[in-house]
Design goal:
The complex is a heterodimer of chains A (340) and B (581). Chain A has 340 residues and is mostly helical. Chain A has 15 helices and 2 strands. Chain A has 2 domains: 155 residues, no CATH class; 155 residues, no CATH class. Chain A has a two-stranded antiparallel sheet. Chain A is globular, with a radius of gyration of 21 Å. Chain B is of the alpha/beta class. Chain B is elongated. Chain B starts with 25 loop residues before the first strand and ends with a helix. The chains are: A mainly alpha (340), B alpha/beta (581). At the A-B interface, helix 1 of A face strand 16, helix 11 and helix 12 of B.
Chain lengths: 340, 581
Amino acid sequence: MMDFSTPPYLLKNASVQRVMLQVVAALVPGIAAYVWIFGPVILVQLALATATALAAEAAMLKLRNKPLSLFLSDGSAIVTAWLIALTFPPLSPWWLIITGTLFAIVVAKHLYGGLGQNPFNPAMVAFAVCIVSFPALMSQWPAVGMQVSLADQIAVVFGQMPRLDAISGATPLDTLKTALKLDEGTVSVAALLADQTVYGFFAGRGWEWVTGGYLLGGLFLWWRGIVSWHAPLSFVAGLSLLATGLWLYNPAQFANPLFHLFSGGAMLGAWFIVTDPVSGCTTPKGKLIFGFSAGVLAYLIRVFGGYPDGVAFAVLLMNLCVPLIDLYTQPAIFGMKDKS
Amino acid sequence: MLQLFKFKGGVKPQTNKTQSVHEPIAVAPLPSRLFVPLHQSIGGTPRPLVQAGDHVLKGQLIGEADGWISAAVHAPTSGTVRAIAEHVAAHPSGLTSLSVEIEPDGKDEWIARTPIPHDAMEPEAVRERLREAGVVGLGGAVFPTHGKLTASKSVPMEELVINGAECEPFITCDDLLMRERAEEVIRGVGIFRDLLQPKRVLIGIEDNKPEAVAALQAAVTKLGETFEIIAVPTRYPAGGAKQLIRVLTGKEVPASKRSTELGVQCFNVATAYTAWRAVAHGEPVISRIVTLTGNVERPRNWEVLIGTPLSEFVKLGQPKADTNGYLMGGPMMGFEMPAMDAPLVKATNCIIASSPTLFPPKAPEMPCIRCGECAKVCPHELQPFEMYWFSRAKNFGKTQEYNIFDCIECGCCSFVCPSRIPLVQYFRFAKSEIWAREKEKNAADTAKARFEWKTERDEREKAEKAEKLAKAAAAQAAKKAAEAAAAAAAPAEGAPTPATAVAPAASDAAAPVDADAAKKATIAAALERARAQREAAAPKNTDNLTLLQKKDIAAVDALRQQAGIEPPPAIEAEQQEGPKS
């Protein structure tokens, strides 16, 4: 039906690959901090996820009779793989990350029609599936400054060494929640956060640098025009609003908003997940609603829910609402603005 | 200083305008043949006024405007009409169009040109002159100019916007026209001003043409006009009529309205120039300025006769060896000329020689990732990716809900799309499908109306015929009765007076009774005939029905009656028969 020699003949130098590669590049500062603080084992997970994602993508493209090189090189599978690796515990066993990645690429992406068609964010689907199926493994995070060699860490990942409780525990966010629950109001947040083995300046020790790296990458994406400010800022606003309100209400029981913004998946979620164009809202107003609601839900789930963090579930729930939000937030068009 | 407004969206492609502005406008030499299409503007196709073999003079009317929205066509030079035949048109489809082929005699001999004193004339006469001179919008839309020169009756005319923005890359014909013929442009604007009587006249030019701005400013000062020359920010499509109106006046003209309903009207500078030539010099539109640029050795602007074949024109620019085609218009909205013998027309503002390096082949189309870049740059603030989904799914109703007919096909969305989706093509496809369906629907509606009218007429005629027959029968009966009465009176010859007295009385008494009976008889006969006819036409499977079937039919009939539908004739006939038998 379509002829390619049609106007416009002049095109901007843009491609899906360029978009995806910039997203990948924007993840680098966060990954660098990750490696610096928790050791290079995360690179092994990134490699595992990437290889699995590309293999699964190739197999699915073949099954669907799509051109291999065109779609394999678009970079979308790499973005998904990296987001999965960064949301999974770095010492999780090899098969866990492969399972998650396979589910993301095969089910969440290709069974829904491949690039551009998935209603749910594939990386978040992977996270949700794995945390529901393997809650214990998905909750074991390394402590800062664990004295385990890289070789031993890799051995843990590949099951050559027993998983030691000594090298892994809950995330700072999870630790705080558990402590507050167990102590039932006798311990204040301030006292807990004073524990320097777990907490740093304003969030989890070490994690504040990693999440700061994600923020830096996010700002790069915003500067490059890859993401608009709507979804990230409204996500931050939604999360902060609840966090600030409850913190002001009872600072002994609720951590401050800064802690929440730089803990868990908040920063990664704000800049790399709620900004996903495929599964997110498209209208400016819709993006605001989407981001804000996801922020509120993320807070509710991570503070009052049973899971270590709430970003993944919050985003998936909001993915469900996207068609409806988009439908009701269509902007008025040129010349028709006084009519609405 | 006038406050400028912004339109949302838009893109900034490389302008590529400097190549073709170094040399002044040159007059292109006479081509060996001219193919002047009759249909060069929006509206009715002009009727050819010449025949093969006729000798024509330069400026002679060869196609007469057909209807009010139509513009005349003239011979661009003197010579001989060789044919009036279909010739490939300057249109991407490669379809042909009825064209007048003229072989120039080389004398370039004008008809008698009569200027008209436009300021002393009725506005209607000036509009008529523009129509006769074939003045149309030269910005690309080629809408007959006279059709836009009537102000709305209910809304006062506030602004007259003159479009010298020329936002498409590569094109410089308006730039050079404004630089070199500023005074005539301004005088042309004066004609439009006189006809529309706006409060203000605003001439918008993109700020990458400072020479044109200066030239027009000087001309305005010299002629003592109060027109405002305004440099507008360079951003495609600032030269779109609606965008320029927005930038200069803040008004947004929706697709559903005419701009005059908002008290504003817009013309291109070249249109103003041709209007002045038509009125003050009696010269119809037989040539225009065309930029020849792109992959050529000598890019520049030429004044070219309408109908010049592309092949002869492009030679003037010396195309480079790797030229692989020619675009008409700019690279954003233009199209590839279908053939080298396609003629240049009134809509041709630019010819760009293309090459694989200038316009590289496009990367393969990828799926839409909903990044929304297209929505960000859409100057009409549409959601192109949504329209794309629905165009692709052929869900045309939905495309209209997303306002596909507000799309001006400027190409900004395709320009930025990272998935390289030819969005504009999808929208054109959807629009043409919608038009086709609309047409089909109209045709069906017309056919239905025609059928209903015919049925009604048939029934009326039948009724009239029956009435006539009844009348004839009644007359016959009356006659018979009279005869019978006369026969009865005949034996009583001895009493002629009473007989003559009785006969009329008898006929008077008998006739009404007999006429009534006759009428009844004819009606019964007609009914009987109708019944027989119906029976003949009735399907035989309604005979010998089982009880169950009859029950079913009765049920259906009950439903029909509820719905207000008459039972079908066969059953009706049976029911009528019922009581008789």
